[in-house]
Specification:
It contains five helices and seven strands, in the order αβαβαββαβαββ. The two termini are 18 Å apart. Residues 28-35 have low confidence and may be disordered. The chain is of the alpha/beta class. It has a five-stranded parallel sheet. Strands 3-7 form a two-stranded antiparallel ribbon. The longest helix has 31 residues, at 2-32. The chain has helices at residues 2-32, 42-50, 62-68, 85-95, 112-123; strands spanning 39-40, 55-58, 70-71, 75-76, 104-107, 129-132, 152-153.
């Protein structure tokens, strides 16, 4: 029963976080008066990452990281932080040592959550954020990291 309660609590928190990110995204679009989204293909993101010109953050859930693996050398910071979106923001800031101009790409499963995260980070002062189109698994005509056969790191399965 305790495990079921925690899953329900986690799902509610996840849903609330998505609502918050949605509202912040809407606010960011209104403030900037335009669509602030910038996209990058998975192969281009990988190429830039290998040249040291881009830091990739995998923002999916911990379970997703273990199920599919992660883009090799990506930093793993889930947008589903148990303390909410501001803790996610602080984790990203800490990872880039407070450099809000750091070239960053965010990746999720299909590109939806990373698009929201991109707008959320931009609304909170980051200036150089891109969304990896198609994410890890792909969506529609956008082919993801895995299908492009880009390097992934397999994490041990969680028990």
């Amino acid at each position: 029963m305790v495990i079921k309660y925690h899953k329900i609590k986690y799902n509610i928190l996840f849903f609330l976080n998505l609502i918050i990110v949605f509202f912040i995204t809407t606010l960011a679009n209104n403030v900037y008066g335009e669509n602030i989204e910038q996209n990058i293909s998975a192969p281009m993101a990988y190429e830039k990452q290998q040249k040291g010109k881009l830091t990739i953050f995998d923002i999916r859930t911990i379970e997703e990281w273990h199920n599919t693996g992660v883009a090799t050398d990506a930093r793993l910071i889930t947008m589903h932080h148990p303390k909410g979106p501001l803790a996610f923001l602080d984790s990203i800031k800490t990872s880039v040592k407070g450099n809000l101009n750091e070239p960053i790409a965010v990746i999720c499963a299909s590109g939806n959550r990373s698009s929201w995260a991109q707008k959320f980070l931009t609304a909170n002062g980051f200036t150089n954020i891109t969304n990896i189109e198609g994410g890890m698994s792909g969506r529609g005509s956008k082919i993801g990291w895995i299908a492009k056969k880009l390097p992934i790191t397999i994490l041990p399965k969680k028990n």
